[in-house]
From TrEMBL:
Protein name per UniProt: Uncharacterized protein
Domain of life (superkingdom): Bacteria
Length: 334
């Protein structure tokens, strides 16, 4: 029996990932969760876990014993999601390939909603301090989902009645890599995680296709900052929502635990940006609230057989250490 839904214990039960409470089954395949770790310094250890129940998404990122990621259900964790649409249309939650799985799993699976994912996972393996995955993402709103998406859409109105849509899946292949030190080959940046991904289309051509890497953080990551790449300074930003071309970070109120994102500015271009959002408890998020940080990718045409690539760097630690890491990344790669 889970704790009362309004208690701190319930939040921890839902959003603090425990591998022993999560499914290791994916269709007819079984995968153990995979964890890689790196010693940042003699008193600090960084560990990242990809989850079978989340089809290879990152369900846990810990610095020592402090969990950063909120992982309840399939619309959370640290994962990739995508939209495809045609000229004259708009991005829709009902055409939204999502790495971790489908919305409906949050209703059909008991808390903490870490049963088998609708997304089809084919590879999740560790080599050294790296993890690679390969999967076919689910549609977040499947054809059979009886509830509307946030824009009032229904999956059946946006997706054709054929495989793979009829199985709740999208016509895309997602391959991801997680690299910690020393595999990411960035000396003095042992508190950095390199994330890379590629997505390949088996879909009909779309005029627009974009992706987002989003991290749902624990609710005590209440503070939001942007980092000025030119001046090397941080600025407090409104936690409710903020978009920026400068890298951003979310921190606990004491500044002892922060997660920042960095993408090369030339990759962001003129369209893409960083974005943070804080939502209060609502039925949409299971009355548990949301604290996110994400980075978008430029939108453009996606044809059958096309492959797009992504690279993002995460920096973790206290506020000063994350700021320093973002500055070093920019000098190294910017």
């Amino acid at each position: 029996m889970p704790p009362h839904w309004e208690s701190p214990e319930y939040y921890d039960f839902i959003h603090t990932y425990k591998s022993e409470c999560a499914s290791k089954q994916n269709y007819d395949r079984t995968f153990p969760d995979v964890t890689v770790s790196a010693q940042v310094n003699w008193w600090t250890r960084l560990a990242v876990t990809t989850s079978t129940a989340q089809a290879g998404a990152i369900a846990s990122l810990k610095v020592n014993n402090k969990e950063f990621i909120a992982s309840g259900a399939k619309g959370s964790s640290l994962q990739y999601a995508f939209h495809a649409w045609q000229q004259g249309g708009a991005p829709s939650e009902c055409y939204n390939p999502t790495q971790a799985g489908a919305r409906i799993e949050g209703e059909t699976q008991p808390p903490p909603h870490h049963g088998p994912s609708t997304s089809a996972l084919y590879t999740m393996a560790r080599t050294g301090s790296s993890i690679r995955t390969e999967a076919r993402p689910a549609m977040f709103m499947t054809r059979t989902d009886p509830k509307p998406g946030w824009d009032g859409c229904f999956g059946a109105d946006h997706q054709p009645d054929r495989v793979p849509f009829s199985m709740g899946l999208s016509p895309y292949w997602l391959r991801t890599q997680v690299e910690l030190a020393p595999d990411h080959a960035m000396p003095t940046l042992d508190n950095v995680v390199r994330l890379a991904a590629s997505i390949t289309s088996e879909d009909t051509p779309h005029d627009f296709f974009n992706g987002v890497l989003v991290a749902y953080l624990q609710r005590d990551f209440t503070e939001v900052y942007s980092y000025d790449l030119a001046g090397g300074t941080t600025t407090v930003r409104p936690p409710e929502s903020y978009a920026s071309k400068d890298p951003m970070m979310r921190c606990t109120s004491d500044g002892n635990h922060c997660l920042g994102m960095y993408v090369r500015p030339q990759v962001l271009g003129t369209q893409a940006y960083y974005y943070t959002m804080t939502r209060p408890p609502t039925p949409y998020n299971g009355m548990l609230g949301e604290a996110t940080i994400q980075v978008t990718s430029p939108s453009g045409k996606m044809s059958t057989g096309d492959t797009l690539g992504y690279e993002t760097f995460l920096a973790v630690g206290n506020k000063d250490r994350v700021s320093s890491a973002i500055g070093k990344l920019h000098r190294l790669m910017g």
